Amino acid sequence: MRKGTLFVISGPSGAGKGTLVSMLTKSLDSIGLSVSATTRSPRPGEVDGVAYFFLSNEQFDEELAQDGFLEWASVHGNRYGTLIREAERTLAEGKDLILEIDVQGQAQIKQRYPDAVSIFIEPPSLSALEQRIRARGADSEESLQKRLEAARMELVAKERYTVLITNDDLETAAQQLIEVVMSYRD
Ligand code: ADP
Ligand code: 5GP
Hints:
Order of helices and strands: EHEEEHEEHEHEHHEH
Low-confidence stretches: none
Largest sheet: 5 strands, parallel
Bound molecules: adenosine-5'-diphosphate, guanosine-5'-monophosphate
Strand order of the largest sheet: 2-7-1-8-9
Shape: globular
Number of helices: 7
Structural class: alpha/beta
Helix content: 40-55%
Strand content: 15-25%
């Protein structure tokens, strides 16, 4: 069985990671997205076990105590982590695995899996990022400001990534992402 490649995708909130990853997984077979655990509340329409596993702080602590995370980090005031059992399930099927995680998580994965391919999705500008977060309509003004502040710091980390994709035109960026993943297949 072909051994899957581990891809880490990061970028500021609102850069378009979720949109691009969904276009990628619809376009290619043999690729799986790890569903992370988080202590943040679900946004309207987000289903438990699909968008995230929504955990209480106590449940997250329990996972931590049982060494259940491949990596985890505090982002925008909530905790997020990749569950080892979720990641292993996809890799055991011989599929490529995508972790859509923040820059702190990428640093942990880089230590643990030096062969992982990291892809940074950047917005064309900070003002475009703000417009996208507003257009998504899911964040309060406070949450929006937190995300914009974090974006400035996250953008500095883009140098640590294997591949940089600017998500200006959506179709172009999606095609670039698909080509990157394809380039690691035989
Ligand atoms: P992330 O997962 O990085 O937080 P999303 O995928 O939720 O970002 O995208 C944020 C918003 O921006 C969504 O409303 C999405 O439809 C929109 N969006 C994504 N890519 C583009 C693009 N290239 N041009 C314009 N809007 C975009
Ligand atoms: P959101 O709340 O917008 O869904 O995600 C906020 C941030 O958390 C994004 O930067 C996203 O990549 C990051 N994130 C989501 N899941 C994980 C995870 O499992 N681990 C880490 N380190 N970050 C995550």
